[in-house]
Design brief:
Strand content: 25-35%
Number of helices: 5
Structural class: alpha+beta
Number of strands: 4
Radius of gyration: 18 Å
Shape: globular
Helix content: 40-55%
Strand order of the largest sheet: 1-2-3-4
Distance between the termini: 49 Å
């Protein structure tokens, strides 16, 4: 990766390298198997690699400093959106039935929000439906997934 930055490769190539790095790392997921979904692991390493490459290539930051930037990136709202979207995408990709139960719009001076209550069930077993609350934020004219939470029993 550092060699690619020093050689001055362009941004699309560096993004492809970051994507390959993320895929290579998830090949060995035994340590997080059962704790995190594959989509969340991919999103984590994509965010980490993208921030690292950007700091090295565009910011001309040394390797250690670029890693600090990348780790800080993982704590941003944008990264949280990526992780939440990965969870939603994984659910949709499995063919689950997703039903919108309720939408509440919450006005705000800076960031209007929507809170969506979803029921997600496997096609074969609708009785085992799980309830999720997805929070969306309106920023720059677009709605973004800000958070996705499962709702416990009781």
């Amino acid at each position: 990766m550092d060699a690619a930055v020093r050689l001055g490769y362009d941004a699309p190539l560096l993004a492809a390298i970051a994507g390959r790095l993320a895929r290579a790392v998830i090949q060995d997921m035994r340590r997080v198997d059962g704790l995190l979904s594959k989509e969340q692991v991919i999103s984590f390493f994509f965010e980490l690699a993208q921030a690292y490459v950007s700091a090295r290539f565009f910011g001309d930051v040394a390797a250690d400093g670029a890693m600090d930037v990348a780790l800080a990136r993982l704590q941003t709202v944008d990264a949280a959106r990526t992780f939440a979207f990965a969870e939603v995408a994984q659910r949709i990709g499995t063919g689950d039935t997703i039903e919108i139960e309720k939408i509440d719009l919450v006005p705000g001076a800076y960031t209007p929000q929507a809170v969506v209550r979803l029921k997600v069930a496997h096609k074969a077993d609708k009785a085992s439906a799980k309830t999720f609350v997805m929070q969306l934020r309106l920023e720059w004219g677009d709605w973004y997934v800000a958070e996705l939470q499962s709702v416990g029993l009781g």
